[in-house]
Amino acid sequence: MDISSLYMKIQSQWDRELPFVIYRKSGEKELHSFLQNNNELYKVDSYDTTGFVFAPFDNRDDTILISAENSEYYRSVISETEFEVQHNKQSISIDIDDNEKEAHLKLVRKGIEAITQGSFKKVVLSRKEEMHFSDITPLVVFQKLIDSYPNAFVYCWYHPAIGIWLGATPETLVTIKGDQFFTMSLAGTQPHVDSLEVKWGAKEIEEQAIVTDYVMNRLSSKVDSLEKSGTYTHKAGTLLHLRTDIKGTLIPNNSNIEDIIKTLHPTPAVCGLPKEEALSFIMKNELYDRKYYTGFLGELNIVKNGHRESNLFVNLRCMEFVSKKALIYAGGGITKDSIPENEWEETVRKTETMKKVLH
Ligand SMILES: C=C(O[C@@H]1C=C(C(=O)O)C=C[C@H]1O)C(=O)O
């Protein structure tokens, strides 16, 4: 299907308040879309099902499915010219009230204190920022995300019972192709200035190693030939992260995708270590609902070239549209060496990823 017909279909789906998702994978030039043909809210009750999943951070809450069975699927190739998105002129205003910074600093200090007292080793603490805008449609924002972040998984997801979410995430939760398994450990952040040849501090090296060790340890009994790459610098928009790639082979009759997802999610990249202690600190202290931020989303059991494929991503660098407001979510890993002011700035830089496309 040509791209303008696909956008027209999405617009009509939106006008009729029917669920849809449109997305583009990292480095690819193809748009994929599932358009649900009713407004039911389907929940994932078995990971044998096929479609597009949208899971919250809190795994006690329901994971939503746009099921392949109840949807039409379309794909479209993006040509070079379609990457050029017109920049609309509109008024926006950002409301970071002073209390917001103080509240985040206080939260981070509390996290560091809990780490110093030995409650846990790492915790990821986050916040939500509101931005008002006057006249921009989700589809235009989606196009701008596509244009601005070629190496991210970019999506726009809608369900009338939940709302509309958009994002450009750098982080894979898990990719499974046939019996081949892949994940990544991504953590540690610094701004990208002009080079990938940068130095990383002890704090970033430690917080990322925590994620790698966790994934390797927890998956060693579930995946064969588990191996990791060296750790390298990964560019995500205007930010750099430390990244290690991890791959293996699923064990016939032993590895199943549900077990792997439940083992990984939420990883110490978005929650902390030990998981339960960090999670209970987050639930008690963050004082807002992350909803689908730091959850995961993507294709589940899609058949391609005769194989079942799942491509799931961690929902980072994302926002939710609520009438004329964008709610932008961002956080960062806290360790004993964290400096509260730097952690605040890291969240500001992360929210820029979304603010940039609302201008
Ligand atoms: C929590 C976020 O990102 C995660 C935390 C990072 C960090 O602490 O440096 C880096 C990448 C992600 O794993 C976010 O973007 O909101």
From TrEMBL:
GO terms for molecular function: isochorismate synthase activity. Residues 101-350 form the Chorismate-utilising enzyme C-terminal domain. Its EC number is 5.4.4.2. Keywords: Isomerase. The keyword Heme does not apply. Pfam families: Chorismate_bind. It catalyses: chorismate = isochorismate. The keyword Ribonucleoprotein does not apply. InterPro entries: ADC_synthase, Chorismate_C, IsoChor_synthase. SUPFAM superfamilies: ADC synthase. Belongs to the isochorismate synthase family. This is isochorismate synthase. It comes from Aquimarina rubra.
